[in-house]
């Protein structure tokens, strides 16, 4: 950019176009190129196209994850649904955790049916599904060792131990004590030694009836080990015999089409229940295990996947779920997964716990692990928080309360865009959540 003509009083100032974008956000951003799916209209000119994998490959983003914020009814879910629909053209598969049960039209358009989870329902998902390297093989390596099998088993044990700790944390509403953690780990190892597929009922049974030899291995008695694991067992029992039975208490129901372009986990049966957190922890755990299996089977060449947690604000306060979400976000690059979390307000992130608590740290960590932030209208009271957490310029922050339905501020890495999301006629039907509000003659 050249400065003023000779003779003018203000001295000339030269900046690169990259720095100019930072100095004049929205007005001078250089665009994201044309590789990706069309999202809509860049309100400062042209069309807006986006693809996290492409931008990652170009070095524009250092992670493919996205967080979508917006007040009720501003078009968050409509954007996510059409985004998944458009990404399918590029062979991308989508997995959705759907607490409100609103992705069924989209699933229908794809010719699939949501996996509806409800207590005592016909579908079970085993959050302790084995990873492929753990599945027993008939061939032995040339040197006769079974090193990879051993490593795979160790990884699975660690993953299962973390999952059960998270689940127990969710159910108990507190962290596990060291002796409880040990009881869980020993129960897991015992079950894994005896069964091909580890299931929750088998773990609960083992916690309630530990063997004397296992107790001896940690220099304690059977009665003391039972006492150490009792609270955890009784809480996990809820998933096996209590109000949450019939969803996660056995091997995964055979015949689920997990290769479909869209896999929806419909959790709406428990949307208004305090058990939603536990349900989401189990569902996301199962999802993560299944994705890990896919990566194990297909290697890095497998299809890239978009994983959506809609209404994520409802479960962030649950420590177990928040830990699981953070783990998935951190694993995104290894799994070839772009995660998307949908929240309402920026302050949702701080409202999940006391200042300085682990919950708040995890929620804010989710934001730092998401380099794409899509912000629909925010109330004026949120502007300060938004500016602070998203590093917005004052121009960008002041725009937020004025954004109309369907228009969002996109922060992609260091760049900012004002984007009006466009819907085709066919897509309008897929995303309509206003039917109940329509005036009837
Ligand atoms: N870009 C758009 N253009 C036109 N209409 C839109 C657009 N986006 C959303 N809508 C309409 O707005 C309504 C609300 O959208 P949507 O369900 O996506 O909101 P939301 O932000 O997810 O709300 P909630 O917080 O309640 O989940 C829908 O009926 C949809 O048809
Ligand atoms: Mg929504």
CA(first)-CA(last) distance? 60 Å
What is the molecular shape?
A: globular
Question: Uncertain runs with pLDDT below 50, 5 residues or more?
Answer: 132-145
- Please give the share of residues in helix: 40-55%
Question: If you consult CATH, what is the topology of the largest domain?
Answer: Rossmann fold
Percent strand = 5-15%
Please name the CATH architecture of the largest domain: 3-Layer(aba) Sandwich
User: Helix tally?
Assistant: 16
Q: How many strand elements?
A: 11
How many independent structural domains? 2
Question: Can you summarize the main beta sheet?
Answer: 11 strands, mixed
Strands across the major sheet, in which order? 2-1-11-10-9-3-8-7-4-6-5
Identify the bound ligands.
adenosine-5'-triphosphate, magnesium ion
Give me the secondary-structure category: alpha/beta
The CATH homologous superfamily of the largest domain: P-loop containing nucleotide triphosphate hydrolases
* CATH class designation of the largest domain: Alpha Beta
Query: In angstroms, what is the radius of gyration?
Result: 24 Å
What's the mean pLDDT score? 84
- Output the helix-strand order: HEEHEHEHEHHHHHEHEHEHHEHHEEH
């Amino acid at each position: 950019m050249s400065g003023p003509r000779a003779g003018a009083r203000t001295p000339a100032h030269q900046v690169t176009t990259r720095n100019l974008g930072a100095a004049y956000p929205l007005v001078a951003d250089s665009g994201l190129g044309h590789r990706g799916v069309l999202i809509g209209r860049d309100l400062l000119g042209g069309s807006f196209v986006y693809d996290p994998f492409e931008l990652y490959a170009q070095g524009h983003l250092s992670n493919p994850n996205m967080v979508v914020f917006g007040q009720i009814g501003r078009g968050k879910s409509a954007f996510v649904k059409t985004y998944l629909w458009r990404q399918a053209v590029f062979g991308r598969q989508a997995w959705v955790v759907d607490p409100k049960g609103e992705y069924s039209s989209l699933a229908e358009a794809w010719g699939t049916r949501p996996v509806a989870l409800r207590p005592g329902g016909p579908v079970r998902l085993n959050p302790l599904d084995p990873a492929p390297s753990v599945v027993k093989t008939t061939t032995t390596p040339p040197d006769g060792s079974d090193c990879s099998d051993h490593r795979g088993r160790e990884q699975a044990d660690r993953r299962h131990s973390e999952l059960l700790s998270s689940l127990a944390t969710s159910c108990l509403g507190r962290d596990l004590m060291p002796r409880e953690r040990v009881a869980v780990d020993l129960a897991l190892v015992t079950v894994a030694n005896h069964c091909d597929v580890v299931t929750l009922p088998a773990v609960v049974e083992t916690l309630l009836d530990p063997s004397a030899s296992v107790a001896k291995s940690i220099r304690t008695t059977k009665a003391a080990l039972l006492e150490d694991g009792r609270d955890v067992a009784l809480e996990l029992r809820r998933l096996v015999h209590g109000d949450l039975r019939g969803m996660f208490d056995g091997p995964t129901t055979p015949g689920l089409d997990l290769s479909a372009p869209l896999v929806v986990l419909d959790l709406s049966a428990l949307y208004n229940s305090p058990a939603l957190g536990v349900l989401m922890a189990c569902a996301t755990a199962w999802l993560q295990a299944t994705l890990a299996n896919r990566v194990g089977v297909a290697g890095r060449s497998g299809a890239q996947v978009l994983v959506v947690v809609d209404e994520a604000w409802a479960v962030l306060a649950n420590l177990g779920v928040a830990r699981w979400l953070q783990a998935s976000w951190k694993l995104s690059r290894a799994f070839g997964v772009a995660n998307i979390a949908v929240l309402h307000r920026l302050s949702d992130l701080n409202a999940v716990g006391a200042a300085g608590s682990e919950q708040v740290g995890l929620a804010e960590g989710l934001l730092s692990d998401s380099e794409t932030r899509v912000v629909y209208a925010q109330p004026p009271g949120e502007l300060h928080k938004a500016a602070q957490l998203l590093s917005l310029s004052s121009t960008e922050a002041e725009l937020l309360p004025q954004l109309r339905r369907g228009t969002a501020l996109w922060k992609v890495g260091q760049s900012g865009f004002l984007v009006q999301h466009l819907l085709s006629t066919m897509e309008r039907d897929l995303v309509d959540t206003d039917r109940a509000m329509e005036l009837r003659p």
